[in-house]
Amino acid sequence: MISFLTSGFFASMLSFLAIYVALTVILHLQANVAGVVNFGIAGFWGIGMYATSIFLLRFNINFWISIVLGAIVTGLIALPLARILLNLDGQAVLVGTLAFASIVENQIFVNREITGGSRGLGTIPMPIDVGPYRFIVYGLVVVAFVVALILYAWKLKKAPFGRLLFSIRDNELLSRSLGKPTFRHKIIFFAITCGLIGLFGGLTAPLHSFLLPMMVSPTVTFTAWIALMLGGQSKISGAVIGVLATEFVFFYLLRVILPLPAEAAQMVPFFIYAAYGLMLVLVLMFKPTGIMGGKRRGN
Fold first, then answer.
1. Is residue 277 part of a domain?
2. Domain assignment present for 283
3. 3-state SS track over 205-231
4. How far is CA 130 from the centre of its chain?
5. CB atoms within 10 A of CB 60
């Protein structure tokens, strides 16, 4: 049992689950608290991952400092995008963020001068060196970051700024009539939360070891959205439950319990996505607010 808990598989599973929980919690803050429909999560996550790796490999900057710099770069890139999109309706924001992610994934990340393109960026070393336990220790560090994010999200929703974001989401015209700079607040919040997405993108880099553009795909965005819809958009716990109901059950638990031959294993991803769709349809039919969803928004 101890050998399994310290194995690379368990550490990788723990780290990726924690990162998906973080992305889904941030999506909850953007969609439920601020009312911003962000379909560009993969783009911001990839920017943070590549920016961190570039600072680390090309400029020899300490890994933890590189993560902070990568988050700042991601937030700064999100600022002009927010200024362009957040004054538009929800559908325009959805299409705009999705288009942004597509441009980043298909134009920027394949550029050899910037990211190394299909040749890859290079080997990302594990930043914690404690011998055979470095993977599990790093996984616990990632979990600590996620716990800190959840505490921040919980406190934000009860703080005056969180209540202001709720009021902007529910009736922006009313908030603006009371003298609140609603557009500025949305821009700042969007940039900060996208910077957090970039932070967790940076934390993902050592888990891949060698970065390739194909690692940044729309699947990241869709997985976070599916998890949030399944768990329930209105609660932070919905993000956690949604990720456990999708990533943990389908991608990890079933693969451990049901070891399949190689020829059958190739079909597993297709069955997984079909099960995703079925689960989503059932939840929307019988509990539209999600597994943990309440009757009121913002609970």
1. no
2. no
3. HHHHCECCHHHCCHHHHHHHHHHHHHH
4. 28
5. 8
Taking the C-alpha atoms of residue 137 and residue 119, their distance in angstroms, rounded to an integer, is 30
Contacts of 225 (CB under 8 A, 6+ apart): 27, 39
| Domain annotation covers residue 245 | no
Neighbours of 2 (CB within 10 A): 6
| Domain extent for 200 | 2-217
Map residue 299 onto helix, strand or coil: coil
**Using one digit for the tens of pLDDT, what is the confidence trace for 247-295?**
777 666 666 656 666 666 566 666 767 777 777 788 778 777 877 766 5
β-partners of residue 123 are 210
Q: How far, in Å, are 249, 251, 254, 260 from residue 257 at the CA level?
A: 10, 11, 5, 9
Q: What is the pLDDT of residues 175-197, one digit of tens each?
A: 888 788 888 999 999 999 999 99
Tell how far CA 155 is from the center of its chain.
20
pLDDT tens for each residue of 139-157: 999 999 999 999 999 999 8
Q: Are 38 and 268 in contact (CB under 8 A)?
A: no
The count of structural domains within the chain is 1
- Single pTM value for the model: 0.89
Q: Is 17 helix (H, G, I), strand (E, B) or coil?
A: helix
Residue 251 lies in a domain: no
CA 170 → CA 31, 32, 36, 180, 237, distances in Å?
12, 10, 12, 14, 22
